[in-house]
Protein 1
Amino acid sequence: DTAVSQTPKYLVTQMGNDKSIKCEQNLGHDTMYWYKQDSKKFLKIMFSYNNKELIINETVPNRFSPKSPDKAHLNLHINSLELGDSAVYFCASGPGLKETQYFGPGTRLLVL
Amino acid sequence: GQNIDQPTEMTATEGAIVQINCTYQTSGFNGLFWYQQHAGEAPTFLSYNVLDGLEEKGRFSSFLSRSKGYSYLLLKELQMKDSASYLCAVKRGGGNKLTFGTGTQLKVEL
């Protein structure tokens, strides 16, 4: 299937741990994104990469580090997890500067 | 900065028409998107407006007035499956950054 996929779908972990979320798209898009959706359902962009190059880096703690090994993958590594990091993290991709962004299924992160 | 406002909740009846409004304040406006998000699922693209006017796509239409900083999403012949959150998002400048509103939770009742 052509899509944006993320793993894992659910992630429950302890405060202070380090975890990674992976994202892959096989749509041939040049641009990929990470969004965070909090408990109030507010969706906010964190990062954007275009052809493996970081182009958007919002005010995100440096405990969050995105990595794009190639333009089909954008992973998110989070160090020293905190309670406030609990949220749903969505990966998305889009065809360069064109309009539509396609979202992955989300990763539900719960920090205990 | 950007300010995007939508009603928090709306309720409508199956078979009816509902209009969800979105107002925004931004510089360098370069397009407005509507996304639908069912509970526990990813947002899915509904519509895109960059010029003033109405874009129709089946039961869904979206309208934009750039001078007024205003858009609406019109849903006709409502079905129960239309119960979802509807997110308004604004693109600014030449880049790909979308800024989302807080979403409107629509409940369709019998």
Note: The CA atoms of residues 28 and 93 of chain B lie 5 Å apart.
Protein 2
Amino acid sequence: GAGVSQSPSNKVTEKGKDVELRCDPISGHTALYWYRQSLGQGLEFLIYFQGNSAPDKSGLPSDRFSAERTGGSVSTLTIQRTQQEDSAVYLCASSWDRVFSGELFFGEGSRLTVL
Amino acid sequence: AQSVTQLDSHVSVSEGTPVLLRCNYSSSYSPSLFWYVQHPNKGLQLLLKYTSAATLVKGINGFEAEFKKSETSFHLTKPSAHMSDAAEYFCVVSGAGTASKLTFGTGTRLQVTL
């Protein structure tokens, strides 16, 4: 497809389990971002990739969170030993700009529920 | 440091009446400002952006916003609301030295009634 694709769209897991969330950005976009959106709150920045490297991972809330990007394309966000406070919608966005323009293209998100 | 404050968490208007969604910003640098819209179960979409050119910025679907430095505001307006405008709207700031990420407001949910 032409847009940013995220999977799964919905994930329900038990506390303590690991989860992987996938993002397939728009072809040719060099920049990729992960955000978290909790109920009633704005978007919280998690990590930014330029190509396969992550120059800014300052938003990752704990060492249970990690992300990687391969081939300058697909990215995976991994949450280990999930906790109930990890429940949120995880949004991925991409951009073709090396000079930041502020225009990000967002996927529809992965809704994570930790029981 | 930079931040945005969206003054209303929820706004309700009647179809055909004007829309005003308020946003104030704080930035140590000359900011770039944006409005994004999120329709239910959809990804966020850029509505408009200000990057130090014209202070009145026009966006998609008839929306516009005016950058007012003296008031540190970037309010979003539309002359006549349509039912399809019902969505969540986010004011966003990006400043020099923070090109890698945007700072989002907490959002304003716009409800449009008949």
Note: The radius of gyration of chain A is 13 Å.
